[in-house]
Amino acid sequence: MKNDSKNIFWASYADLMTALFIITLTLFVLSYKMFKDKEAGLEDLKQELLLRSDKIAQQEEELDRISSYLISEKNLADSLVKQLENERGRLLVMEEEFRKLKEIEEAISKLDSRYFAYQPQFKRHVLKSDVQFSTGSAIIKQEYHQMLENAGRALKTLMDSLENSLNIKYLLVIEGSASQDNYSRNYELSYERALQLKKLWNRQGVEFDEDKIQVIISGSGTGGIGRVKNNEKLNQRFLIYIIPKVGTIDTVDWEKLKKISSGLNNDEAEEQEDDNSFF
């Protein structure tokens, strides 16, 4: 009886150990499978992270490229804005210069009419007096000296009164013209006669400000525009051109520009008021 009890115990114990072993093995297999599944999942996550990392790197590169592009575009835009501001300044200055030049042109046209006739189509003056020369001679006869001196002083008075702001200088062209005849040196002769007029003025103290006025001596011979037709003797004459020159604008004086712009705006407002009052 006692032996039977022992046998039953060991049989039960063996069954229990076997069951525990089976349970342990089952748990091990399940754990191992779960581990492998987790490992596979982690590998997939790793691959996905690598892909995302590559995409992020590509996006960062694209952002860097876009950022560089935007910076370059901003710099270009800033440069264009600066150029436009400078161009606006230049245009305003040019507008002011044009207005001044129109005023100067009007003043030039009013050279003393006792001695000069203005030809607006050629923008020049013709010395009114009928100065006659001997054929082939550039010598100005004594009888014309006083009249030419008065004409020179009238010309100097006008030149001294002309606008000298905005770096405006002047070309004063004294041109001689000859009548058509058989003389072979009429071209040279016309220049020599203009030169003699300039020398006559110098001797009489009629001199022009060299810092403001450049005097040019020229001769058109028997050619040139606006010649007198049907009376060649009248082509023995002096022509006067007064040409304003505006200096090159290298930089924009913004303070001066503001004053110019303000002045132009005021002029426009006054013109508008005049127009309104007219209606």
CATH superfamily of the largest domain: OmpA-like domain
What multimeric state do the chains show?
A: single chain
How would you sum up the major sheet?
5 strands, mixed
At the third CATH level, what is the topology name of the largest domain? 60s Ribosomal Protein L30, Chain: A
CATH class of the largest domain: Alpha Beta
Distance between the termini: 144 Å
Strand order of the largest sheet: 1-2-5-3-4
The structural class is alpha+beta
Tertiary shape: rod-shaped
Output mean pLDDT: 82
Number of domains: 2
What share of residues is helical? Answer: 55-70%
- The counted number of beta strands is 5
Number of helices: 4
Bin the strand percentage: 5-15%
Q: Architecture of the largest domain, according to CATH?
A: 2-Layer Sandwich
Radius of gyration: 51 Å
The succession of helices and strands, N to C, reads HEEHEHEEH
Q: Give the low-confidence spans.
A: 248-252
Can you put this structure into words, describing what you see?
The protein has helices spanning 2-108, 145-161, 186-203, 254-278, and strands at 116-119, 124-127, 168-177, 213-219, 237-246. The protein is an alpha+beta fold and 279 residues long. It folds into 2 domains: 1-78; 109-249, 60s Ribosomal Protein L30, Chain: A (2-Layer Sandwich), CATH 3.30.1330. Strand 3, helix 3 (186-203) and strand 4 (213-219) form a beta-alpha-beta unit. The termini are far apart. Residues 248-252 have low confidence and may be disordered.
